[in-house]
Amino acid sequence: MLKKETKINAVALLGKQIDVLDKGFIRLVDYMGSDAAIVQAARVSYGEGTKTIMEDDGLIRYLMRHRHTTPFEMCELKFHVKVPMDCWRQWIRHRTASVNEYSTRYSVAINDKKVTEPDEWRLQSIKNKQGSKGVIDKQFRKILTSQEKDLHLHADDVYEYRLENNIAREQARKDLPLSTYTEAYWKIDLHNLLHFLSLRMDEHAQLEIRSYANVIGYDFIAHLFPLTWEAFLDYDFRMAAVLLSARDIDMMQRMRDDVYIFEREDSFFGWFDKRKDGELKSNMERQEFEKKMERLDISVPWT
Amino acid sequence: MLKKETKINAVALLGKQIDVLDKGFIRLVDYMGSDAAIVQAARVSYGEGTKTIMEDDGLIRYLMRHRHTTPFEMCELKFHVKVPMDCWRQWIRHRTASVNEYSTRYSVAINDKKVTEPDEWRLQSIKNKQGSKGVIDKQFRKILTSQEKDLHLHADDVYEYRLENNIAREQARKDLPLSTYTEAYWKIDLHNLLHFLSLRMDEHAQLEIRSYANVIGYDFIAHLFPLTWEAFLDYDFRMAAVLLSARDIDMMQRMRDDVYIFEREDSFFGWFDKRKDGELKSNMERQEFEKKMERLDISVPWT
Amino acid sequence: MLKKETKINAVALLGKQIDVLDKGFIRLVDYMGSDAAIVQAARVSYGEGTKTIMEDDGLIRYLMRHRHTTPFEMCELKFHVKVPMDCWRQWIRHRTASVNEYSTRYSVAINDKKVTEPDEWRLQSIKNKQGSKGVIDKQFRKILTSQEKDLHLHADDVYEYRLENNIAREQARKDLPLSTYTEAYWKIDLHNLLHFLSLRMDEHAQLEIRSYANVIGYDFIAHLFPLTWEAFLDYDFRMAAVLLSARDIDMMQRMRDDVYIFEREDSFFGWFDKRKDGELKSNMERQEFEKKMERLDISVPWT
Amino acid sequence: MLKKETKINAVALLGKQIDVLDKGFIRLVDYMGSDAAIVQAARVSYGEGTKTIMEDDGLIRYLMRHRHTTPFEMCELKFHVKVPMDCWRQWIRHRTASVNEYSTRYSVAINDKKVTEPDEWRLQSIKNKQGSKGVIDKQFRKILTSQEKDLHLHADDVYEYRLENNIAREQARKDLPLSTYTEAYWKIDLHNLLHFLSLRMDEHAQLEIRSYANVIGYDFIAHLFPLTWEAFLDYDFRMAAVLLSARDIDMMQRMRDDVYIFEREDSFFGWFDKRKDGELKSNMERQEFEKKMERLDISVPWT
């Protein structure tokens, strides 16, 4: 929970720009609403009542818990962002937002690229096909960064050559690397923003967009909508909450009853299928269950 | 065009409530943006330039003319409205908006109904299946209003009887007349609001919702976004603009060439099909063409 | 889980009409996609692999579990529905759908009203402000139904009188009761339909719309998309899944550690505040926790 | 208008793949609806009637003319497309669609890049900041293409080197050129597709996306929805229709009255402001008016 002392005055955040990655940023251009505005809209539906702060908190938590999302739509935020294009490609997939992006058709492309410093290179994770921090030789890291620099210079040369020779900008840009920065005005309501944050603050999100999401969440939303922010962290299943499926609940009961399904013939939807060497096969749903039990501090008999 | 002198300070409009119909209203709860914010967002895409007021005007007109709608989405408005339910049924069909409506499931229904005064009754238009101001006998008008009053009282009695006897509100409300007022918070971006106004300020829109649309347009938008408002009126084909279809353009050429199609065998897509008595058959597309020519002050040879 | 034998051929459902309430219905007009189409779209993103039925099932469950919603959007359903207007008012709040509704402006209103049979009347629930099956005197039930019939007849008389006297249909309809039936074509993608079903099959949804939702779910979706349907029921927190918030998880730990917070001064966010008589105050979040523990078959020490 | 003989059987289009650009394609995966389905949905609102083909045509034209868009939403199309990323960046801006894109995070990037053949290079247009076919030296064209090839090879080398050394795919891809192809399933309703086509078949759209839009329009929509397609071409102001603004209409009247505004002091909103050399200044709105008059075959006195 946000301590009162650390709260930043909302108005002070207006126009504030926070740097992200090597050359990117997020700036709050404008916003509309507050925790109180959410409560106000909800009370049109659910009826008036005494309005102490405590009750507002309870109402916001109720709305969040039951996914009554429309009152959160009553708040709106407009950001100015500068983001590498490969990150922006993920960003723009969130459709319920308004966007004005810098046009490399009308203007010369922004002369900034995301540079990967030697210590930033990540290895491919075997497990989940995503990036991971593995051990990479220090010397090799330098080679990768140096190689990247050469490619950026090459791409710049080609782009500039085309422009100097009056090739159409819309065509000149076609071989710019995805690491090229773009800028945009991005406006979204608070409900859809929280959905964006749930997906993009998640540990499975790519590090780059996660960096932006964390800034939006912790540097802006946490201060502008403190009650909503706390409820979001508490109830979102990608944040601090845990979602138990029907199968999960069934298995918890079986564990309490001490009839572990894997000892029987039935393999419980394949959770306990074994490899030739007798070890349990990899099974995503079982492994996610194990993680949930860890979160609940309940030990699982088969590990 | 709005004269500078008549402009109302935007801040003065915040919280302003304007009455509509007999018991309804529109109140501006909050808003975000201005003509300048539209321009600011557009310049992210189209590039910077000197920012005189004149140029802003030109840019806004350009955006509106070419339906570059995203910069207009950068502005947002939140209204508190009180509307009869049959009117609200039309209103809510506009999907790109956020809504919190008064719940007659949780609360007792608002005890207000749209009453039709004797001089408000309208006759069915034969032509376009919509309402029209025809001649209705004065005495008969009074009967209609009196009859309406009886029905409202009857419905009220039944509703109250059910409530007094603890019938569930969600069920007690089921026979309330559509004329019962409801309230809602309604939030929408400027682009989608203008689309709403285009449809609902139109002469074909029902008088009731048109009354609300006109208030939103002339009492709020015209003052909050004067340049955008003027461009909207100028370029929207349901407002002051005229849209000529390929067939319309073809016919204009034929009229100039003095080869009126109806004198030939070909009837030009049925425009000049005749009834048995030799008169032109009713043809919606031709009749709309005639109206467009009237708007352009061009006379049509066959009328 | 749907048994294979009970599966209905998808094509046989096309055009099928199922009656709902006294005069309503749902008819499947057209649809696009299948479980296989969801898998096919997902594999564009996540890569190909061998396509046994088992693997498709696993992928669909994975998509549902992690709320990867876009593949479910690849399926589309179009229904023809007949619904009382007060029910339709709830239905239409789901914005991500396409709708063509019967117009009482252009046509005479459908001459059907939802009639409440004596045994259908419900009492107001004190607890959650919604309807509930309480004990109502049999004789009184008959009075309510008879009273309703009178009101319907009165409303019909007024409506017909207006029409006979050529009052505009758009105005004549204004005092029709909310129980009047309307019809619509309603088209929605599978992801948004499941969201609709989650909200409207929920026990807190009003009985009338729940009746429609159950038909859509169990009579159509369960047969057209059997793998998706099963995953939906299993993972949706309003269906068979349970969502534990950070506070819930904290309390579960405290219960295991035998340090029940209510014995201490700290009241755990008000969960254990007491009334003057020493009983626990009503607290929605605690009470929902109690229900969740019941679902998990975990006993709560304070009840 | 489409001749009956050239009409292609709709079913024959299912699964049909048409090549676009050097390595791209569009394939129709599935679709729902037809001209008849649009009419069917519209008649729910506007009432039944005899259903001859002619009347269907008239109704579809009416819906299109008056922008009654919901019946067109009742049809849905699903395409599989392969598109260069810089083109896809424009495509994805159309938000009201469902998308599953090939993931270069989970899979190795598609090893295809848009290659610009020597005769495909375009010059920057001075007038409207877009591409144009200007005269470029033949020898120079070859240099540009050769230079592009070198850059592609360089980028490929870097990408492959990273992958071989197990750098995370999500990071390895970051310097791929925007000309790299991606693939996606793209599903959209007919109304929103026509809006996409209006913007992307327009002469101001970039050649590459225009190529895709034309294939979608002329090779698919024209055959699947022939009546709708014809009405779209006829009524869309970016296609064969002309939209006259209030100012345009005013000027047409002035031209007929022979009082050309530029001869007077008033410059008609700056349309007739002059440069020092006496020539008319460039003025976008006036120049667009001139083009409209050319379309209407009306001569303008000042040119």
What can you tell me about this protein's structure?
- Four copies of one chain form a homotetramer.
- The first copy, chain A, is an alpha+beta fold and 303 residues long.
- Chain A has three domains: 4-105 and 181-235, Gyrase A, domain 2; 118-175; 246-295, no CATH class.
- Chain A has helices at residues 10-13, 35-46, 53-65, 70-73, 85-91, 138-164, 169-172, 190-200, 207-224, 226-235, 246-257, 284-295; strands at 17-20, 24-32, 76-84, 98-101, 123-124, 131-132, 181-189, 242-244.
- In chain A, the strands form two sheets. In chain A, strands 1-2-3-7-4 form a five-stranded antiparallel sheet. Chain A has a two-stranded antiparallel sheet with strand order 5-6.
- In chain A, a hairpin with a 3-residue loop joins strand 1 and strand 2 (24-32).
- In chain A, helix 2 packs across helix 3 and helix 3 (53-65) packs parallel to helix 10.
- Chains in contact: A-B, A-C, A-D, B-C, B-D, C-D.
- The interface between A and D is large, with 52 and 52 residues.
- Strand 8 of chain B pairs antiparallel with strand 8 of chain D, so a sheet runs across the interface.
